[in-house]
Amino acid sequence: MAGNTFGRLFKLTSFGESHGRGVGGIIEGVKPGLELDMDFIQKELDRRRPGQSKITTPRDEKDRVEFLSGVFEGKATGTPLAFAIWNKDQKSGDYDNLKDLYRPSHADYTYDAKYGIRDHRGGGRSSARETIARVVAGAIAKLMLKEIGAEIVGFVSQVGEIQMETIPEDLSLIESTPVRCPDLKVAEKMIDYIDNVRKDKDSVGGVVSCVIKNAPAGLGDPVFEKLHASLGQAMLSINAVKGFEYGMGFQAASMKGSQHNDEFFSENGAIKAKTNRSGGVQGGISNGEEIIFRVAFKPVATILKDQHTVDKSGKEVVMKAKGRHDPCVVPRAVPIVEAMAAMVMADAWLMNKTYH
Amino acid sequence: MAGNTFGRLFKLTSFGESHGRGVGGIIEGVKPGLELDMDFIQKELDRRRPGQSKITTPRDEKDRVEFLSGVFEGKATGTPLAFAIWNKDQKSGDYDNLKDLYRPSHADYTYDAKYGIRDHRGGGRSSARETIARVVAGAIAKLMLKEIGAEIVGFVSQVGEIQMETIPEDLSLIESTPVRCPDLKVAEKMIDYIDNVRKDKDSVGGVVSCVIKNAPAGLGDPVFEKLHASLGQAMLSINAVKGFEYGMGFQAASMKGSQHNDEFFSENGAIKAKTNRSGGVQGGISNGEEIIFRVAFKPVATILKDQHTVDKSGKEVVMKAKGRHDPCVVPRAVPIVEAMAAMVMADAWLMNKTYH
Amino acid sequence: MAGNTFGRLFKLTSFGESHGRGVGGIIEGVKPGLELDMDFIQKELDRRRPGQSKITTPRDEKDRVEFLSGVFEGKATGTPLAFAIWNKDQKSGDYDNLKDLYRPSHADYTYDAKYGIRDHRGGGRSSARETIARVVAGAIAKLMLKEIGAEIVGFVSQVGEIQMETIPEDLSLIESTPVRCPDLKVAEKMIDYIDNVRKDKDSVGGVVSCVIKNAPAGLGDPVFEKLHASLGQAMLSINAVKGFEYGMGFQAASMKGSQHNDEFFSENGAIKAKTNRSGGVQGGISNGEEIIFRVAFKPVATILKDQHTVDKSGKEVVMKAKGRHDPCVVPRAVPIVEAMAAMVMADAWLMNKTYH
Amino acid sequence: MAGNTFGRLFKLTSFGESHGRGVGGIIEGVKPGLELDMDFIQKELDRRRPGQSKITTPRDEKDRVEFLSGVFEGKATGTPLAFAIWNKDQKSGDYDNLKDLYRPSHADYTYDAKYGIRDHRGGGRSSARETIARVVAGAIAKLMLKEIGAEIVGFVSQVGEIQMETIPEDLSLIESTPVRCPDLKVAEKMIDYIDNVRKDKDSVGGVVSCVIKNAPAGLGDPVFEKLHASLGQAMLSINAVKGFEYGMGFQAASMKGSQHNDEFFSENGAIKAKTNRSGGVQGGISNGEEIIFRVAFKPVATILKDQHTVDKSGKEVVMKAKGRHDPCVVPRAVPIVEAMAAMVMADAWLMNKTYH
């Protein structure tokens, strides 16, 4: 209700601010008996971590997840899985200068407008540290989805003006480059591009693409909880996301029906589509093809250039930037996109069990 | 849970198929004592109706809403507002040839995959007739929103390859053209374009843009129910929608932070943004500026050209199209987009009342 | 949220007032392909109907359910099952004298306090006609539960000062007496008792007991949605219910642990309890024994004696009673109790499917 | 959905087992800016603690709550309030003998039937330690309710065969006796009674009564979420509860309408009821009178006598009891009953704000 819970049957209720005791959540709907592969969960968290390479911020957060309940002898018991990732760095004094400032395109002003009170340190609840809880829940959703073989693969398809032309068949190289682009030539260009942005004390946006392989047909609910509508809400709920499209997306607007329709054919008794402009979903329900979607990220609002803004009293101030910040968070967003997609898929799968 | 309810506090639970007894729903969260302006509600329904002009299908559905409960002496009582729009045309025999057919890019195959049973007549539950219930609920949400002055204005900004360059200041001409594009020169081109598509027995997609004026700052919830994430889910739940973006949307991906950030300033004691690249939402919460978003529609799947597909048994068939169909539903989608936006805003507003 | 929806996966959202167009609802979670036995559903409705015998009110409502969606060729399709029972008798003029009156122990005053507006005719939304929707949904839940063999049997165990000592083994005679008490000797006494209450122009309360047979072990969720807590909420939501207990209920308060505990034993490989003081539920989860609970009903507030009360303005008035009213609604409450129990069990069963 | 969340707008999602890392929860719906009186919250927890006197178990748990998020400078920020109470005593070896045992009238067997896996140590999730989270959330709900002046007072009205005849006017002495009975003479008898039960190595049940003072008229929702139905679910969700009644409760079943109805009168412009047999709720909505209800607790299942039972394999075993256990938990249940009532009232109050 108040926006802290995601999902219907596979559910994450998250908590935490960037500078409180920590961030974490409660996960429900985990299959009783599921082996919780702690190495895998930690690896997923590590993929989100800043400081993975020169193109990301060098702070080493080393986020370690601690499970507080719901695990017994390494297995999920079916009771709520609570977990926390404790905040290390609690020098809230660093943030005193931001106390009454409304940073441009940050959530400072809107939180004050909504709540009339706000933990200003590091963005508080609107900090991207909140996404840590999503990565943990998403990792567990991925473990659940192994039972049906579904696999979720995200990658960076655009950084600023650099973009991949097509999705390559081979997605195996994604993790071999810090920018998480499977086309290594494009990846090189992206890295250079980000490097120049950093030197300019600026930031830049990008696009994360995602492919869900081996999802069975029949997932998703009609009308308001169409599979792509749930994926859309999931992605748009990630910090800095400005757009979502699946299949042909916005390109479909300029297409004709005869160009866009996916004709069916039959192969060894299975019904398949000749093309996949639909992006694996028809009428809100998966059709057994690959589910493909794209997520647009704006440039992060924190930049190292001076900016004009106001404080709480309306007084105009020039904001002197300092510190170290990621010029492009898009590569680090890949595991978050995957995590949200995994949660949507696990939830749709559990929901489907109730029909049969 | 099963996808038939939208909203948390302002809620629509919808029902109905294209060829059952009718479509309708139950609306909850309507303010007790609200005058239900039946003329207005009917007018909204009329805007969705086919047969409004030569560019839409000539069938005259004349959908009339009947309220079944929750109204007393013209006012909402606070109890559930049930309503129905009865189906007229029940010649289900017309659809016998579609009984076992999986139409390309329709939901026939996926519904069968999900449920194992399906009302094949006219698309059943996946029919766009279902959106009638949304328009009724949206009309009531609009009546609710008058109290805070918020206004929702949708229009067609693209049809196929024809698009408006910028959003004009003056949106007053939208309803003066059947294509619902506020720039009448562009509207003319769109009408010609659609006419050619019809002659080609084809269909075409487009984009609906939407502006929400006078929304107060503070609406929307952080994290998973960010205002734009709810708008996104709402829009993506409309039939044929393939993408959603707000503010600079996908363009933001190629922008720098210094180009994208909206600096604040102070005017007569009020805090405002110099620019509105954020699209009226920051950190998931409205900032008092205009909320702006765009919704991409694919071309409708039903075209009058022959198509290759399979039936339930996997046998390949050539589908001979017949009947009369809209070549471009985008203009008719405008009231649906507005309705969903109105519901999201009414819900966010009610939610906010619980904080104060 | 606003109290009109019951259930999580097997869900009823109800609508309607006693004097609007009708009452009805939307049912979700019905298994796709379920045969909807219309005769059975109508029979359940008939059991709730007034005028079944001299001990109930002689009005003949003949409530007929009409399904509006979700059914195709006699089977549920998995899409929402909307239904309505149309109100016949709409002489709202009869109620003008009640317009501003606050009847003792009715909901007139509290609805005004809550909503500031109220459909005063026949109790409006607080009328017992609302329970018709529950009986329809409960009938469908019973049809669902056939798959696991679970059966729900309600009966009257107390009317005023007349009560059964013990639950008889043989419950086959319940429907053979209008008072729905399986012990025919006690039933005779109850009928005489009610007859005297009627002659006195008074009303009387009673108790409905209910046994759920063949419920598998493992149903119900821990903590807040314990099976008996859901049953309790369900029963307490029925008009005129003042108490709920299961197993030994309030008697357990005066018992010792050594008297109350149910020891387990093993029989042919199955684990069973020697006694069933727990009432078939332990830790909120069914243990495979019979689930037994009792529901206390107050006497209906409408009596044919004069009563003192006030109107909206606070003016004291003597309420002259008229018309024909049931002196004891408890026998007619039996199908409603069963319906709510069936919905709880169907919901718990669907929920359990998501664990395996 | 899975039973770990209570409430709609004022919400607790709880986690934790008796022998994991700890118990805790996430609270949502707390008013932004609310002063969190930590002393008060801790005092409420202390009231639940074992070892408060010779009649309770002498273990000194000293549960201290730690808030993990949602608090800034002593005030709630409106973001989720996560909290934990860490488990101290983790000698899980003590429980090895219970590993495969199904204790009579405990949840061991039913958890295994449901989940197929179970943390057997100390009852796991079914342990009464889980109620700690409720007391914390209830304390915060009480702080919220101060704004409307509503006050919740629970007390013990029955222990085994000892019961109070009537509710005394003066409830100020409740906390002056360890048995929490406001009539000190009856309290003495209860203490003696419990002492004898302990010497017998047995346990005993009882009743907690609760009065909600100064609740405004208009709280509660019609139909399925009637105020007393929510209270009933809340109470029945507490470990060991077997029954709930409000107003005249089960006694109402033997009353006549003319005896039970509460006539209204007018006093200084306010509408009041001459009597309060309704228990402060009519038609599911509070009427401004005191809300009164009673909750029946069974004797705790753990007793120090030998009992016959089976293990997981079905083998019959004699359970040798050991350790120290409360012979009567009813006095310690008082703060839990109050906590659940406070949450229900805070939730109903927030819900009501959305109507106006």
UniProtKB/TrEMBL annotation, chains A, B, C, D:
One Gene Ontology MF term: FMN binding
Pathway info: Metabolic intermediate biosynthesis; chorismate biosynthesis; chorismate from D-erythrose 4-phosphate and phosphoenolpyruvate: step 7/7
Record-listed FMN binding positions: 125-127, 239-240, 283, 298-302, 324
Presence of keyword Flavoprotein: yes
Co-factor: note: Reduced FMN (FMNH(2)).
GO cellular component: cytosol
Domain of life: Bacteria
Binding locations of NADP(+): 48, 54
Family assignment from sequence similarity: Belongs to the chorismate synthase family.
HAMAP family linked to this entry: Chorismate_synth
NCBIfam families cross-referenced by the UniProt entry: aroC (TIGR00033), PRK05382.1 (NF003793)
Role description: This reaction introduces a second double bond into the aromatic ring system.
Protein name: Chorismate synthase
Organism: Marinilabilia rubra
